[in-house]
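Section 3.1 - Work completed
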Amino acid sequence: MNFLKLWGKYTKLILGIIDIIIIFISYCIAQVFIKVNYINIHTVITQQLINSVLVSIFVYEIFFHLFDLYKNITSYEGAKEYFCYALACMVSCDIVSMLGILLNLNLVTPKQHILAGIFASIILVSYRVIIRFLLTNKITKGPELERKNLLIIGGGEAATDIVKSIKAHQMDHYDIVGIIDDNSKKKNRNISGARVIGNRNDIVKACKERKVDIIFFAISNISAKDRKEILAICQETGIKLRVLPGLQDLINEKNILQSLRDVEIEDILGREPIVLDNQNIATLIKNQVIMITGAGGSIGSELCRQIAKFEPKEMVLLDIYENNLYDIELELKEQYKNIKIDAVIASIRDKNKMDKVFETYKPYLVFHAAAHKHVPLMEGSPLEAIKNNVFGTYHVVNCCDKYHVKRFVLVSTDKAVNPTNIMGATKRMCEMIIQAKDKVSETEFVAVRFGNVLGSNGSVVPLFKKQIAKGGPVTVTHKEITRFFMTIPEAVQLILQATTYAKGGEIFVLDMGEPVKIYDLAVSLIKLSGLEPNVDIPIEITGLRPGEKLYEEILMAEEGLKSTEHDKIFIAKPSKITMEQLEKKLDVLRETIQDENISLKNIKQNMKAAVPTYQEEKRSE
């Protein structure tokens, strides 16, 4: 449309000309109202009127610029801007009236000035509303774009902003068919022109009746439980769903439509946000030298990010894999200019190298995330798991003792509980190492044990997403297999919090919430992609892999559980193992790794001797 093109190019000029015309018309109308007996145009347009219009144009334009009215974007204007237009008109007419009296100008009466100001404000606001309507509806020639029927969940401020933004910019993309809100008082009322049509129980019905194509979940401040329940209902519709992020992310995002994202599996797990005692964490970390092993991994890199927020003096990032280490080093150096960042390529297996690193940096705290963690791979390479996990940890632990590290934190796993695989058995051995060493060292050795983390290296979620993207099938090892899940940031936050409670020798156990069936997880991810499980994307049951068990445990049977100050962190009963007993177990494993030709059966027998709770899982299909 030619009007829209001209408007975009000459907005301020067009507005200025229209405003001048409006001022003139307003004074003419005011003149007619005052002198109702005049019907001849010549008796309306007098010298007084002309003088008044000329002075008014000058004064009005000054105040329009003082109020920055020409800097407004018309399609974004609302009640606040319209009030400013009216205020500018009323102030201007008063000033013109005062100038006429003080300077004895030949102008119309004060009553006419006020009437003209009222008419000017009404006409000025009205035509701007019309222009906004034309701009936001984008009347164009040619065929209309196919619009999607949109249902919005939530009737708060976020939903209001979304409705306004769509009407301003996306009217050719979306047709808002209704808003869902659990507040019964809002039902059948309008929010920026969009009708509230029901509560969460009406979502499925509304989607069918109104042929909804897409749903926007527009509630940023909501409990995890309610979020999970509403998203589960939306998920049952099979309709594409987009959600707002958390409240803090929303505050940092300028465009609310751009902040909408696809639903992630974290959204439907229903876990409440972690509340941390940041003061205790800061006291422990600030102005200290902190070392993180396995710093390039999923847990290690997130540890680096969160530790950096507490302003350590120096961070030593240690990893054997250079690419990931380089990425996290670059990220931290860009964000934290005042922290010294040292990236060290080294293997924890190398005893001499570890000694040199500790001698050089003398860390205050050590977070030990370096490990081989992939269960099936470690079943195929058990000696590598023992070399890296057991003896790598042993080297780091000894260096911590030798160089008087304040506290060592082992990142452990639920697979160390009654392990059924080599990886889990090696991690249980690591827990035994730190508990035995704590009894004879000034360093405080502790472990933090938790389950699977969403999105981590080796997690099923990235694998499922890749399989869905390829059109399937999604592979699940067993229909009844369950796992505990938490997000990477959540796990790391709890690791840091648990560190502040440490006195030495504890195994901290994180509350992982309710276990999740992997099959249900696969179904949810397929539905979140807008597809139908076993229709669009097949789910294939492949059978349990070597070393894999149906159910993970958090505590060993003989361990007690003690609460801490944090409701999601518990302490397992300390082990009674001594260094003398531990060294005998390590001797068995040392002999094991010396023989590259040793049979898998003998490796497992020796691991069983070192870790009595280790039992091979009986395969069930």
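Second construct:
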Amino acid sequence: MKRIILWTLAAWCGNIAIAQDYQKKFEQLGTMLPTPNSYRSASGAPGPQYWQQKADYDIEVTLDDLTQSIKGSEVITYTNNSPDPLGYLWVQLDQNMRAADSDTYKSTTNEVQDSISAKSLMSLSHDYGFDGGFKIHDVLNTQGAELPYFINKTMMRVELPTILNRGESFSFRIDWSYNINDRMLVGGRGGHEYFPIDGNYLYTIAQWFPRMAVYDDVNGWQNKQFLGRGEFALPFGDYNVAITVPADHVVAATGELQNASKVLTKDQLQRLERSRTASSPVIIVTQDEAIAKEQSPVRNKTKTWEFKADNVRDFAFATSRKFIWDAQGVQVGDKRPLAMSYYPKEGNPLWEKHSTEAVVNTLITYSKYTIDYPYPVAISVHAASIGMEYPMICFNFGRPNEEGTFNDRTKYGMISVIIHEVGHNFFPMIINSDERQWTWMDEGLNTFVQYRTQVEQYENFPSRRGTAASIVPYMKGDKSLIRPIMTNSEQILQFGNNAYAKPASAMTILRETVMGPELFDYAFKQYAQRWAFKHPTPADFFRTMEDASAVDLDWFWRGWFYGNDHVDIGVDKVKWYRMKLPEGEPERQLSNKKQKIASGSSQEKNAGSFQDGFQEFTVIPTGNQSYREFMARVDDQDIITRHENKNYYEVTFTNNGGLVMPIIVEFTYVDGTSEIEKIPAEIWRKNENVATKVFVKEKEVVNISLDPEAQTADVEAENNHFPRKEIKSKFDQFKEKQGR
């Protein structure tokens, strides 16, 4: 008896293991997501006790155009809304990434090649001759007393004189300076570009002041070091910023200009006012005005531009005497923000034609899918070889050749980057995810809505990312070179594919193939509205998408975001059946060939072609045992009559890639017509490797194809057809469609 019990237990455990293996892709995420609490609810919404910190800034900064340096002073007022008493504050010093002893340089891997250019050698040895990093001069309280502080690479700990309890605020001052990097030589998100032809600079200034780190309910202090790739986690606050620059410079910045009458001419003020209601861009600073300043620069006088920005997580600005400036108001809900562009003459005529138009299109489409754009301005600044975003302002590439001509590649590349970077106002500037940890939450979601903008606002736009087909080469690549989407920013391999392209394609597939646009759009908008001006996590996004749609998506998050499987669903075999009529019934009208085949062995039929004919099955009377107690009886003869001329196709699908997905099946009939059936991913829930399903058709089928419109990122086209035939891969079709 004991042996029998042990054998039974072992068999039971074995069956459980097999069942778990089959069901693991459909297991709920469960403990993989953090436990809901009063701060973050199980629905994905902020909880009743959700809190976040606030950091307000008053900043005065001077940019020296002769030495390419910045000197500033800021007063930070930090409000503790958390339930935790704080004894110190953490401040981000991102410029320290460029200090000589930076961990960025130390942790960079590289190799010596047989031959190397001098510039590459300089990069290899980090021998730029550049004194980078913040110079912290003072850290003081508002009474002028020194505060103890400690700089740990790109983070600075400021010790408080007393504990900062919930609801209390503390103000302190930091004085600092740093040298502005040559962006075209050293690289970087911000810096300067020098134009030797006229001897002037264009500055794009970012990560330029010591900024508060985030303290939240998920991580406590988000004080992970900045190595250059994982971007920023920042609290919201209000900014008053005074920027002193050469008197002939034009400044673009986060926020609204407060002293336009002091820094603009009368004509420029009138043009600016006219642009607010214009239906096309109005030139505020003309190209002729910019060229005149280039030729006769004012280097010994300054002006101070004053800006105010409320409820933003960061502040950036751009300044140059070379700037042309245009603007156009765009109606978004009950507001009319200004879409604006700043660019040197080197950007024309491309920028004058297309930049502000792209900003307008972005605000309209993103507002449709998320929330109405809440800020007063949205700015696109032209800067070579960069695409980078900040609240209300971004820096974008796209430069014609010296003669001013440009091809479609340059034009569409510029429009793409403008849509993308302006779109970052929504992800993560408003829907404020932690970029230091989860790049996909801003880059991936943003790339998805960028794709929607390109589709909806432009005809035949050559989108590089966002479709199912475009991600196929990455998905079928070497798995040792691929990381799951849910990977920290600094550990990602193939950064563009992992953090931008794959999550964007996943969102398109989720919208078009899994959920449908109506359900997806509602849930996606719910996420945006719930977490606007707050700090969402991946779990908040996953939970909200399910909560607002009533669609169980755990299998989708598990496969697309936590794993490296790819989509490769094939038609393994097809069997064609027809009902065998009872004795004495008239035979079907069949060709002699089909009659002959139908009488053959069932094992030989349907082996590789519908030309092999069908098999027959027999319908027998329904036995009493089928009814059990109180079950209604059926009319056997009526059922036989209704089904006697139908075709039954038993199709066996195989999941070769491991990633479970809906199955999209196209049936082509003998009369040349076709129809598509969509089978939900749950068909794989009992067996993740093989699924067999019978399709009942009135007409005879001559071809069965899977994923005919390349909607699932299936990497293998050849096994998608019965009968088998040679076909171009989905990606080859995608490239042909894009004209590449």
